[in-house]
């Protein structure tokens, strides 16, 4: 276990499939196949080119450098470095990440590497994907191969990004690749994703005990709309599948009994002797991705087991007072941000410190810049400021949150919504590949600079406060 710095880390995040392009330079992934299913991606786009980042990474690192971030969170495309997910590694594929890491370090930016952000090599899906235990072995081999190539320079590793999404949107709801709708398979995927995390951390730590290892979860509190027992039960069920299954297992408490009851019999036979101990391999940090909280109401006549995605619940979309909804239709709920940071660190202190590894919003931005060449994105600036304030509130409470990564550096491929939803601090014209900074990029740059100035100007400043103008 390493000590992570107590100074606050400011960063921006992306993910391989969403920005890289260069389809020819890698093996097929489940997302390539999913994009070819008619109707799977709403605008019919795919990951073939997206932001063409593989060829434009130097420019993108310059944008990061101008932004003033300490760190950049990116993911490695498994199929770029190991085209079929097993066997030989690709020198060309590894070469790209090698150059990227060097470019970042040259700019004084720390690389934060995520090993898996949903782009499973397609061949592994043919063998069962995350529903199969064999993928766990393949993943550990892959993790060690990436570490072997980059571990001399990369010291911050996240195993998985939002494994709930990989398992439940990919194998349960079927709205993400591989498009499977089967709760038994989603349950098995849950277990295998966790197991692959623990085994990879243990194996990688043996190679490099001085690096930090963690996992990134999407957590939200889920607030009950009323105090009725039926509502509270349903909220607790959802909380089990979304939050506690992951957190409890990682913290070494096993799967929560009430959730096991829900997942049973799907989990039966999947958990082998010693698995839970391996999943509980100690982590150096927990990553939290936060977009919005959910307000929940018990649904008439729905039983928890009928839909493990939203167990017995309806979603009531309700933003914080004075806030609305983003272009994704997600309510703007900064209050839930402070809440989930507090809850995670209070109920699971052994998983901390906490880094916010993603936070951001999609809006229908103007395509044409203002007179000064900057894209006006007032609502994104508002979202950013509201969430930086909620973050400052958490820091002021003394909660051990040590970093924040904005999602996303660039407009990119937003999964089932393709190129139609823009989350970037920087606009990307997908025809010309031109990058244009938005007002939110400037606002984030200024917030980072202000925080750094206040941190260095006087040690007497209240600890953990972030000026948010
Ligand atoms: C993240 O996922 C991803 O890591 C990133 O790749 C992606 O581009 C980004 O966010 C924006 O989507 O059941 O209706 O309450 C987002 C994770 C988890 C956010 C589920 C919305 C609530 C859906 N999502 N969440 S609902």
UniProtKB/TrEMBL annotation:
Residues 451-462 have a biased composition (Low complexity). One of its GO terms (molecular function) is beta-glucosidase activity. It catalyses: Hydrolysis of terminal, non-reducing beta-D-glucosyl residues with release of beta-D-glucose. It comes from the Bacteria. The keyword Nucleotide-binding does not apply. Its EC number is 3.2.1.21. Residues 451-469 are annotated as: Disordered. Keywords: Carbohydrate metabolism, Cellulose degradation, Glycosidase, Hydrolase, Polysaccharide degradation. InterPro entries: GH, Glyco_hydro_1, Glyco_hydro_1_beta-glucosidase. Pfam families: Glyco_hydro_1. Belongs to the glycosyl hydrolase 1 family. NCBIfam families: BGL (TIGR03356). This is Beta-glucosidase. It comes from Aquipuribacter hungaricus.
């Amino acid at each position: 276990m390493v000590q992570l710095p107590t100074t606050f880390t400011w960063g921006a995040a992306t993910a391989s499939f969403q920005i890289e392009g260069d389809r020819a330079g890698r093996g097929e992934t489940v997302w390539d196949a999913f994009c070819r299913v008619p109707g799977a991606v709403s605008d019919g786009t795919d990951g073939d080119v997206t932001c063409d980042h593989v060829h434009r990474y130097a420019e993108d690192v310059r944008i990061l450098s101008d932004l003033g971030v300490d760190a950049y969170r990116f993911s490695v495309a498994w199929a770029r470095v190991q085209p079929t997910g097993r066997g030989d590694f690709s020198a060309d594929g590894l070469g790209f990440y090698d150059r990227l890491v060097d470019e970042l370090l040259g700019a004084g930016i720390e690389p934060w590497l995520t090993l898996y952000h949903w782009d499973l090599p397609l061949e592994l899906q043919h063998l069962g994907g995350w529903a199969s235990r064999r993928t766990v072995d393949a993943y550990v081999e892959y993790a060690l191969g990436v570490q072997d190539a980059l571990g001399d320079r990369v010291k911050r590793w996240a195993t998985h990004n939002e494994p709930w999404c990989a398992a439940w949107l990919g194998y349960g709801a079927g709205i993400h690749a591989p498009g499977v709708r089967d709760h038994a398979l989603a349950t098995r995927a849950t277990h295998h994703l966790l197991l692959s995390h623990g085994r990879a951390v243990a194996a990688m730590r043996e190679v490099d005990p001085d690096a930090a290892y963690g996992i990134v979860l999407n957590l939200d509190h889920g607030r009950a709309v009323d105090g009725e027992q039926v509502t509270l039960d349903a909220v607790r069920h959802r909380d089990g599948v979304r939050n506690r299954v992951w957190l409890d297992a990682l913290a070494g408490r096993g799967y929560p009994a009430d959730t096991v009851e829900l997942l049973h019999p799907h989990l039966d036979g999947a958990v082998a002797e010693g698995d839970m101990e391996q999943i509980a391999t100690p982590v150096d940090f927990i990553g939290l991705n936060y977009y919005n909280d959910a307000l929940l109401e018990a649904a008439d006549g729905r039983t928890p087991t009928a839909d493990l995605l939203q167990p017995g619940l309806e979603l009531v979309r309700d933003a914080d007072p004075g806030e609305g909804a983003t272009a994704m239709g997600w309510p703007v709920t900064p209050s839930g941000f402070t809440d989930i940071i507090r809850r995670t660190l209070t109920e699971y202190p052994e998983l901390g410190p906490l880094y916010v590894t993603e936070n951001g919003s999609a809006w229908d931005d103007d395509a044409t810049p203002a007179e000064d060449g900057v894209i006006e994105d007032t609502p994104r600036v508002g979202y950013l400021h509201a969430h930086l304030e909620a973050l400052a509130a958490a820091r002021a409470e003394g909660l051990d949150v040590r970093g924040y990564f904005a999602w996303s550096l660039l407009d990119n491929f937003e999964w089932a919504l393709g190129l139609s939803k823009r989350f970037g601090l920087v606009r990307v014209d997908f025809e010309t590949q031109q990058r244009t900074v938005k007002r939110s990029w400037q606002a984030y740059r200024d917030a980072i600079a202000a925080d750094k100035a206040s941190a260095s100007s006087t040690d007497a400043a209240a600890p953990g406060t972030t000026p948010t103008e």
